[in-house]
Amino acid sequence: MTVSKRYASTVFDRTNQTIIDVIDMSPPQPVTYTPQDFFAFYEYIFKVDLNSTDFSTSTPYSFLLTIVSYLQNSGETNELEPLGGFPQKRLQEFLATPIVIYNEAWLGNTVSDPDMGKTLSLAIPSYAVFSPPAQI
Amino acid sequence: MQRKRKFSLDVSRIGAGDWIAWYNVSVLRSELPGYQDGQEWTSRLGNSKVNLVRYVDSKRRLGLTLIRAILGVLLLSNVNFRATYRDVQDFPLLQAGLTAMNTSLVNDPNFQYFATGNFWWHFPSMMSYAYPVTPLTCSDLSSDCQAFYFPGQLSLIQFPSGEPPVTKADSPSATTLIEKDAPGYQIEFEAIDSVPNFDLADCRVFGIPIVAVQVCLKETNDSFIAGTLPNRRY
User: Fold this and answer.
1) Shortest CB distance from B181 goes to which of A19, A90, A117?
2) Taking CB atoms and an 8 Å limit, are A122 and B166 in contact across chains?
3) Contact B232 A119 (CB under 8 A)
4) Do residues B51 and B137 make contact, with C-beta atoms less than 8 angstroms apart?
5) Claim to verify: residue B14 and residue B72 sit in the same structural domain
6) Is residue B115 assigned to a domain?
7) What are phi and psi for residue A44, nearest 5 degrees?
8) What is the predicted ipTM?
9) Is B156 exposed, middle or buried (0-12, 13-18, 19+ CB in 10 A)?
10) Looking at the domain assignment, is residue B2 inside a domain?
11) How far is CA B93 from CA A21, B61, B101, B127, in A?
């Protein structure tokens, strides 16, 4: 897994707000996360207080049961997923989630970063025909 | 005086009641008696009659011929199509995009109230927040290599105070919203064939004695090798 920061213009469908394109991507900038950064979050979200009398109804305990089952079971290679795509997807989601949701912007905080996006545009999509340069 | 007629090969082959384009039998139209609009008697040709086809068919044929020529040029040429977007209205923003992962959040007393639930809520649909892009660092692009760009959701955008909201009345012909030049994170995953040598320090077990999950993360150059039990690794 490799993480890099990039600036880009993201095109959203105006009706359902799904991402339909990413254009004008900048060159990648290296990001210096360490395993300990991830472990700090995993430690926190899986923290079950066994001293609590109702730990079995707590959110971390329920989540732990769910995610163990989610990461371990099913999704093995079959006719629909010959490469075992489901288990890989689950691990991808597990690794990507802290990066995406545990940051100031996701939590709705106003940040002082001067490099944040400053413009939102309404646009009409169209198609351009181009011919790639001839290869000799 | 009756003129000498010259019939084309096509005309000579027509049969009784055949439909042919009128220009093929124009000579009959001008010379045969009993002509009625839309019909020609061709008894002199040995055929009973010829029903005329409207002239529009010849136009259609000409149009199809042109389309075939244009398609031929397009298909034989090495051309590609690229989506472009014409801006019709801009709105200033206070901020848009994602910021860096912040590990100091775990020190926030309020974090415990939403950390687990937030993860649980978003984790199963995490890839729907991303857009697949071309990998940059995979050693072998033909292998099981995938890259995703996470720009942050549209709902994370913050507008300057006092700015009117964007409504349906704004440029109704525009079907897309573009978050311009905002930071996001590209995450690439490349499957590895062999299990690497994880040290004890590379792995953590999270959970309680009756249920737990082991996560291993090892830093190698600018990447992580990651895996959980059993047999899931990157």
Assistant:
1) A117
2) yes
3) no
4) no
5) yes
6) yes
7) -75, -45
8) 0.87
9) buried
10) no
11) 20, 55, 22, 26
